[in-house]
Amino acid sequence: MSHRTGLEEHVIVKDNKTLRLGYTTGSCAAAAGKAAAMMLLTGKTVEEVSLMTPKGILLHLLIEDIHMEDARVSCAVRKDGGDDPDATNGALVYAEVTRSEDAGIHISGGPGVGRVTRPGLQQPVGEAAINRVPRSMITKEAAAVCREQGYRGGLNIVISVPKGEEIAVRTFNPRLGIVGGISILGTSGIVIPMSEAALIESIRVEMKMLCEAGARYLVMTPGNYGEVFSKEQMDLDLTYSMKCSNYIGETLEMAAGLGVKGILFISHIGKFIKVSGGIMNTHSHHADSRAELMAAQALRAGADLTCVKRVLETITTEEALDILKEYDILDETMRVTMEKIQYYLKHQIKTDLDIGTIIFSNVHGSLAKSENADSMIDIINGQCS
């Protein structure tokens, strides 16, 4: 019979598929720290520990690669991300525990745990990238072991991930200025497969970091197309640029909350044609009305019914653009589209956030820009000089 972690009854259903939950690197670090502290203070081998997560799910985690000495114990817990496509899945998260002359639990990062190099993250510059909740979990578990064993001294706990530096290149860490390894993460202790909340939180973290670095105006691209266009086709300083994925509405709300003064969106028409209809999450699962909205904007621009019907039959926005160009209505349609985009972006939030937009096509290049786009470019370039 295989080992039961306590997650067997906890699943989610997404797109008619049943997906397993997993546990975070923070849970791994806390469990490894608990086991190592127990072994150090009792002298007895510990092969499994129980860990209550902030989510309220009790985990039962196996302890691997145990090394016991009189003054030092190290061991590991293997990360299981469930059915989430997680770069850290299968990684061993180690804790090495020694006694300390100073009271309390002292946590630091060893090899494979990244170091913070830029302000705006949960930990100060120079500290190990072990986030607040994992630190709290590690401290709580180790302190409980000390109480149970009647030990009144302190403990040093070093968290490491031997393959962390290799894994980190497949995470957000390089972009966030975390070098040398992965972050020890998790707010609930549990990994929810393909969690939108986790993606949105990563956007918020990056935006906060840019704000702490001095940004007041941000360049925002939904994805790789926008990033490439910004680099290759525009005279624009991208020091304070980032991706917002499909989360247009959430991005605007985050920006307002963080005190950002302006955002310049640069997007492929395939994403932002949806925004022209007030759609603030552009993922196809939420809405895929590109042809309908392109046809609506063409009709507003004066296209005849033959043109509009052909646009409605298109599969891609690039195909629709070709038709609009054929009917000599492309420029006017894009002008109308931009008006609608700006209208919905500004009505998403009730603040004086300056919002500009540039839309483009991979084939036709720049299609339209808001009236304030050029002035925003000047401000953005100026704040980086």
As laid out across the biggest beta sheet, the strand order is 6-7-8-12-9
Global structural class = alpha/beta
* Percentage beta strand: 15-25%
What is the tally of helical segments? 13
Principal-axes shape call: elongated
Uncertain spans: none
Rg, nearest Å: 25 Å
Task: Report helical residue fraction.
Answer: 25-40%
Quaternary state of the chains: single chain
Keywords: Cobalamin biosynthesis, Methyltransferase, S-adenosyl-L-methionine, Transferase
GO biological process, one term: methylation
GO molecular function, one term: methyltransferase activity
Catalytic activity: Co-precorrin-5B + S-adenosyl-L-methionine = Co-precorrin-6A + S-adenosyl-L-homocysteine
Task: Explain what you see.
This protein has 385 residues and is of the alpha/beta class. It is built from 13 helices and 20 strands. It has helices spanning 25-42, 132-148, 164-168, 173-176, 196-212, 224-233, 248-258, 269-275, 290-300, 305-312, 317-326, 330-348, 373-383; strands at 11-14, 17-20, 22-23, 48-52, 58-62, 64-68, 73-78, 92-100, 105-109, 112-113, 115-116, 154-160, 178-179, 181-182, 190-191, 217-221, 241-243, 262-268, 354-361, 365-369. A hairpin with a 5-residue loop joins strand 4 (48-52) and strand 5. The radius of gyration is 25 Å and the shape is elongated. The chain starts with 10 loop residues before the first strand and ends with a helix. The mean pLDDT is 93. It catalyses: Co-precorrin-5B + S-adenosyl-L-methionine = Co-precorrin-6A + S-adenosyl-L-homocysteine. Its EC number is 2.1.1.195. Keywords: Cobalamin biosynthesis, Methyltransferase, S-adenosyl-L-methionine, Transferase.
